């Protein structure tokens, strides 16, 4: 792989929401390969502060229902229409759901932000892996999803960091404009 291929892959990565997933399962082997790539993310002191849980069966039905009811309680009908409510109830049914779990390493005594940065790198590896396989994906950290995470049994020191959604995208999804600020606005040089 050369720099141009790497650049194309990075710039092709995008968020694809579960509304746009086909009713087509991702194979267990493909899921394992994608998560294996997450394990290759850099970690300070090699702590590997993560674990992943594939949420199957009832979770695929329950999550959408949970999200719809959660948002119904906190938003009015103008903010969260009846149409959106009904669509959200089945939101996660076609998705492969991977819970992202933070496992802090007490012996290493690293700052939490370093460990979460490592997990973020792992998620980016998963996202790029999905992109290369033409699988839609995104990391959901919405308030409803984080609330749903309380249903997942975790060890005392663990923390739920959201769900990574994956699915085969429908054809002809409307592409949103994807812009980035110019390099000159974000890169500066500091000399002594």
Walk me through this protein's architecture.
With 192 residues, the chain is α+β, with helices and mostly antiparallel strands. It has a domain at 15-52 and 97-171: NADH Oxidase. The protein is 40% helix and 14% strand. It is built from 7 helices and 4 strands; from the N terminus they run ααβααβαβαβα. The protein has a 4-stranded antiparallel sheet. Helix 2 (28-38) crosses helix 5 (112-132) and helix 3 packs antiparallel against helix 4 (82-89). The radius of gyration is 18 Å and the shape is globular.
Please provide a brief summary of the model.
With 192 residues, the protein is of the alpha+beta class. It has seven helices and four strands.
List keywords for this structure.
192 residues; alpha+beta; NADH Oxidase; four-stranded antiparallel sheet; 7 helices; 4 strands; 14% strand; globular
> Distance N terminus to C terminus?
36 Å
Succession of helices and strands: HHEHHEHEHEH
Query: What is the name of the CATH topology of the domain at 15-52 and 97-171?
Result: NADH Oxidase
Structural class: alpha+beta
Give the helix tally: 7
* Strand-residue proportion: 5-15%
């Amino acid at each position: 792989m050369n720099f141009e291929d790497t650049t194309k892959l990075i710039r092709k990565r995008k968020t694809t929401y579960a509304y746009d997933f086909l009713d087509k399962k991702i194979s267990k082997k493909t899921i394992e390969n994608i998560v294996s790539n997450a394990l290759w993310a850099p970690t300070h002191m090699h702590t590997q502060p993560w674990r992943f849980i594939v949420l199957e069966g009832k979770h695929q039905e329950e999550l959408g229902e949970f999200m719809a009811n959660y948002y119904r309680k906190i938003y009015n009908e103008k903010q969260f229409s009846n149409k959106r409510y009904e669509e959200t109830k089945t939101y996660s049914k076609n998705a492969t759901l991977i819970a992202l779990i933070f496992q802090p390493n007490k012996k290493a005594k690293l700052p939490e932000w370093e460990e979460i940065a490592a997990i973020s790198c792992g998620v980016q590896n998963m996202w790029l892996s999905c992109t290369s396989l033409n699988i839609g994906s995104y990391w959901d950290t919405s308030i409803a999803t984080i609330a749903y995470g309380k249903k997942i049994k975790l060890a005392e020191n663990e923390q739920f960091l959201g769900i990574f959604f994956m699915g085969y995208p429908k054809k002809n999804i409307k592409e949103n404009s994807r812009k980035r600020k110019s390099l000159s606005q974000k890169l500066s040089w500091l000399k002594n």
